[in-house]
Description:
The complex is a heterodimer of chains A (694) and B (181). With 694 residues, chain A is of the alpha+beta class. Chain A is 35% helix and 18% strand. Chain A has helices at 2-14, 21-40, 53-67, 70-78, 80-94, 139-146, 152-176, 210-213, 258-268, 280-285, 354-364, 395-404, 413-427, 451-461, 480-489, 500-509, 511-515, 634-650, 660-669, 678-692, and strands spanning 241-242, 248-252, 301-310, 313-325, 336-343, 373-379, 383-391, 433-440, 467-473, 494-497, 517-528, 533-539, 559-562, 566-575, 602-611, 619-626. In chain A, helix 11 (354-364) links the parallel strand 5 and strand 6 (373-379). In chain A, helix 14 (451-461) packs parallel to helix 15. Chain A is globular. With 181 residues, chain B is mostly helical. The N and C termini of chain B lie far apart (59 Å). Chain B is elongated and about 55 Å long. Chain B has a domain at 2-99: RNA polymerase sigma factor, region 2, helix turn helix motif (Rna Polymerase Sigma Factor, Chain: A), CATH 1.10.1740.
Amino acid sequence: MTDDLQRLRAGLEALPQAPDPATRAAALARAMESFDRSQGTAETVRPKSDRPARAGFLTGAREMIQKLTTRPALAMTASFAVIAVALSVYPALKNGLPRPGGVAVPASETPAGTTATPTAPALTTTAPAEIAAPPAAPLAAEDSAATGPEPGVAAQERARLAPAAREEAESAAALADAAPLGEAATGPAPLQKLRATGTESLRTPPAPAPSTILQPAPDAFAPLPEANTEAFANATASAVKIAAEDPVSTFSIDSDTASWSILRSSLANGTLPPADAVRIEEMVNYFPYDYPAPKPGAAPFRAAVNLFRTPWNENTQLLRIGIQGAQPALDARPPLNLVFLIDTSGSMQDANKLPLLKQSFRLMLPELRPEDRIALVTYAGSAGTVLPPTPATDHGAILAALDRLDAGGSTAGAEGLALAYRVAEEMGGDGRISRILLATDGDFNVGIADPEDLKAFVANKRDSGAYLSILGFGRGNLDDATMQALAQNGNGTAAYIDTLSEAQKVLVDQLSGALFPIADDVKIQIEFNPAMVAEYRLIGYETRALAREDFNNDRVDAGEIGAGHQVTALYEVTPVGSPAVLNDPLRYGTGQRSLLPQPTDDLAWLKLRYKAPGESTSRLVETPVSAIAGEADDDARFAAAIAGMGQLLTGSTYLGNWGWDDVVALANDARGDDPFGYRAEAVRLMRLAESLSR
Amino acid sequence: MRMQTPDEALAIAAANGDREAFAALLSRHYDMVFGLAFRLTGLRAEAEDLAQDICCALPAKLRSYRQEARFTTWLYRVTVNAAHDRRRRAATRTKATDGWGDWEINRRAGMAEEAEAQDWLAATMRQLAPELRDTVALTLGEGLSQKEAAEVLGVSEGTIAWRMSEVKKRLRQLARAEGML
């Protein structure tokens, strides 16, 4: 590609033909007039002696260059009368008339402090629903503050064009034709590094017909998205399955919440999020719900199952599986080894990246204990330890090290990861939990840049016992796909931090959940009873699908549940005999009969597998699911509204005429207690999305 | 004699009212300002306007010149900032005008090969984000080192390096997109 760089150089070097002599002479003559004028008016431009001279020079010069367009400059030479006008105008300008343009400072140099937002009251993390946390801070103001220097128009353009780019990627991948269907999306993608991520054993559900993958080539004249190198992880939405043919559904748990924050930052920017950025399970899991806590002595989490009528289809039912992680006593928590791995590459310079990251970590420090230890590793062109392991109470040293961070250089992410794992290993110690917190905009462009290699590296390292969590910052080249891949393979979670209040939610209020795993490799398998269920479909969890046999295979990695975490999964279930059944019965039958001696009226059989942290053998929890539908409580209806929102954003075909009005009404009605305003914010974003999608 | 005087000394003299020094400084550097303006905007008329604006504002600007930077570095910075302001003003008028946009009307009648090269250049520059365009104009167009470009743009050297890697990435994408047509 250096060829093209040379070509660009040659083109630019050859570009300016010599300036036109007449134009040049005219410009010089005008400049000399301007020079003479400035000599003559040197005293009169500053009639007030109390005005600081330096400020007068600087702002005056800036104002002048801003006000001075060619038109007045041309007019100046046209006649002496006009020059006289100009003479009287410039002093007036200098004396502080409002400046329309603002100071000529590139937006990226905006001081970091401008994103500072009020911190919400600190909360006791001992509350049972520990996710029910943060701030009733003014979100609208924060959003706009944190959207940063990215111009709205460009962002809009990007979002609009992103789907086209994805189509291109998909068609290219399909043409490559080397991989089986499930890996089609992982192939070489030209514009966006589009990958289906998920665990190593990720299988795309077999449903989508090849025709949906083989999309027609994009319009050759469609403009390219401008300098947008964002990549998102997603897979085709799960399709409706027929319970008689395919009664078993298996997936890994996912307690990430990044998708909701990405969606919020897009909407706050005035654009609909790219469909690939919408992962419904992460949206639903963003919100706290009031699930029953697990009983002491039982499994570290408890699953609550409810069945209720689907808001968008009165002939189907929603099956909600709500999992509540135990909240161990905080006093007894093991000490932590935290390695902050901070991306300080040039792309992190924006106000909503490195500066927000520094503020976020500052918020987090008071939550840590004296026995916790912190190390700081940065990577840009090369990786280095900025702060050796230090007790968490030494705020001075930690804050000073944070303040020294400066963005610049390319991104040697792999080298940084290797160093961070090394530091974590050195810090080790009995009974301590080691966790690497990688803060990045996801742009890895030096060293191992292939996400598959990075995944393999992280998957290899996770056996050392260190967890890897990802905090995403900023937009523009957010490599959500790589972030997801790393977190899923590194036994951690991925969160996206767009505002300081989101930092508070993730790093302060839910810190124990983010840092203390209570169950590893949690998998869910549900077998529907064909006697009761005609069809079903899993809403979300596309990137977390597992093969049926992976459920019992302890070598297959899956998601973690942190202390107090809540995870919700929704199935849309069509009962036998419902008019909403989409598939006609087979003419010749399937010949399958239940193996059970007696038919039961259970709706389904739910099985969960998990490993206690540090163990390698999984345990099994199973329970029948009753087919008796109940009333939906606020939590259930709100989760359904969020799922509906996600499906509208991804253009799902299962919602019929159910639209934004219904989503907003449902969510508004189901807001319930909402002590921290999350649900109110969700309703606000739904309205925004409704307007934007018109 | 003036020809031997360094830019910096001329600039100080001009700031203190030396008319000849100012004239010498202008004739020495007009072409450079015009050249950079051309590379930043992609349009001759824009570049001429911009160069003239800068020249006219220079007497006032010069007073803020403190010999902290080389005069040419300072002048590059003035030019880039003026181009930014102009871009911003244009953006408020119409969001379409973003430089490197109206290439067609500006193309010289000439050899087809040359026209094609210019079209490629215009199309490429249009696809680059403004900050990448500025960086490219300074490093590739003006032949500045990354350090010098960093000084002009007021960012760190690492940022320039990162931007250049972004440019390469972008060129790759464009080449690939071209291949798909």
